[in-house]
Amino acid sequence: MSIVLEPIGIIYTPFNTKEGMPIQSIGAKGVKGRIELNEEFIPGLADLDGFSHIILVYYFHKSKEYKLLTKPFLDTVPRGVFATRAPKRPNAIGLSVVRNLKIEKNIIYVENVDMLDGTPLLDIKPYIPDFDIHRTEKHGWIERKTDNLDEIKSDERFK
Asked: Fewer CB atoms inside 10 Å of the end CB: C or N, the chain?
């Protein structure tokens, strides 16, 4: 089976290199960016301005290979790639929840961006707390490692 995905737009951010970037959108509070959606998708933006947050699904366009065991930013122990949010994955797909500031024609202004400048956007979904927040019993290896996410930045491990 072959799957072909075409970007629907490009995400522009202040991050030109991976080093020093926030590792999750929660650690990028106040960092502004914009999405330039391909003009043929403008009708799909109807009603999106009613949501304060949106989910961006995008392609890690600078990730060229992957390892099934990887050292995530929040740990020093190798973990299974599917138990991490590491950018080097078999299918280099990322997702982030960002604040939706405003929409003007095909430009979506967002905040709390944690992706590289020029990242290809694959999809947009509304963030709906009633659907997207789940109480969980287990947090795996990451339990008690997320207290200072706003201070943890990307480093050379995913070049």
From this structure: N
pLDDT in tens, 85-131: 888 899 999 999 999 999 999 999 999 999 999 999 999 999 999 88
Q: Is 92 exposed, middle or buried (0-12, 13-18, 19+ CB in 10 A)?
A: middle
Q: Comparing C-alpha atoms, which of 53, 62, 48, 56 is closest to residue 15?
A: 62
pTM of this structure? 0.85
DSSP H or E stretch at residue 76: none
Residue spans of beta strands (DSSP E) within the chain: 9-12, 32-37, 53-59, 69-70, 79-80, 93-104, 107-111, 119-126
- Could you give all domains of the chain from N- to C-terminal order, each with its CATH number? 9-129+151-158 (2.40.30.70)
